Amino acid sequence: MSMSWSDDTTALSTLKRRIAEFARARDWERYHTPKNLACATAAEAGELLELFLWQDTLPEGKRAQLEAEVADVAICLLNLCHAAGIDLAAAVERKISDNERKYPPEKVRGSAKKYDEYESGE
Asked: Is the pTM here over 0.90, yes or no?
C-alpha cells in the first residue's frame, strides 16, 4: 500500500509511528536507546556534511544522496524523540521562543554573532 507523504500533509506523529513500526518489526527497539540514537543522529549528520566537504555548493548529481542523508538524520532524530518521550514540535516551539528572546531582531539583524556576544541593553 503506497500513500503520498509530504511536509504539508504528514504529521510528525505519523512519521514517528511509521519509524517505530519499522524498528519493532525487525526487533531493533532494544538497540534504540537515547544514547545510541543520539550517536546515530550525529553519525548520519556527519554523512550529510560529507556531501559538502570541500564544496561551496552541493555537487551536480548529488540531490538524491542529499535527500537520503537528510532522511537518515530525520529518522534517527525522530527515533530518539520516540525513545526519550520527546514531543519534537513542542520542543521546537520552546526553542524558537527562547531564541526570539535571545536574538531580538532590532539587535541582531544581519549579524551572525552568538547571543552572548551582544551588549546587554538591559
From this structure: no
Q: Is residue 116 part of a domain?
A: no
Domain ranges, residue 23: 12-88
Give the model confidence (pLDDT) of 82-116 as tens digits: 999 999 999 999 999 999 999 999 999 999 888 88
pLDDT at 120: 55
Q: In angstroms, rounded to a whole number, what is the distance separating the alpha carbons of residues 51 and 47?
A: 7
